[in-house]
From TrEMBL:
Protein's recorded name: EthD domain-containing protein
Pfam families linked: EthD
UniProt organism field: Patellaria atrata CBS 101060
Family according to the record: Belongs to the tpcK family.
Top-rank taxon, per record: Eukaryota
Domain EthD residue range list: 16-109
InterPro entries: Dimeric_a/b-barrel, EthD_dom
GO molecular function: oxidoreductase activity
């Protein structure tokens, strides 16, 4: 991919009553498949979708080597070619279905912090 992309990263935690095992399994399989399988994913030029699973073991390892650790269980990053593509993707009916899926495993009670770069 030679063209520059806008990278949108979303940070979130699991629901308090959901196990880490269920959280990472649902996030890594069900939610990921729903995301890349949407018509809007291709239609609006989403270039890449990645997930970072910050397991308790990984966070503890970071602490043990003296790192300051972000307090998130996971991060999703979407690569888009333009802000217009992002706006159309987030405004699509398919994105609403993704947001509905989040209720099964993701704590969105305080919103989902996002970073763009």
């Amino acid at each position: 991919m030679s063209e520059a992309c806008i990278k949108l990263s979303f940070f979130f935690n699991k629901l308090p009553d959901v196990s880490y095992e269920h959280f990472y399994k649902h996030y890594g399989h069900v939610h990921a498949d729903l995301t890349v399988g949407t018509k809007a994913f291709g239609q609006f030029n989403i270039q890449r979708y990645t997930q970072h699973h910050a397991t308790p073991e990984m966070r503890e390892k970071l602490r043990s080597i003296g790192m300051s650790v972000l307090d998130w269980d996971a991060c999703s990053t979407l690569w888009v070619k333009s802000w217009e593509d992002a706006e159309r993707f987030f405004g699509s009916p398919e994105y609403s279905k993704l947001a509905d899926d989040c209720k099964h495993f993701m704590d969105t009670s305080n919103g989902i912090p996002c970073m763009a770069g």
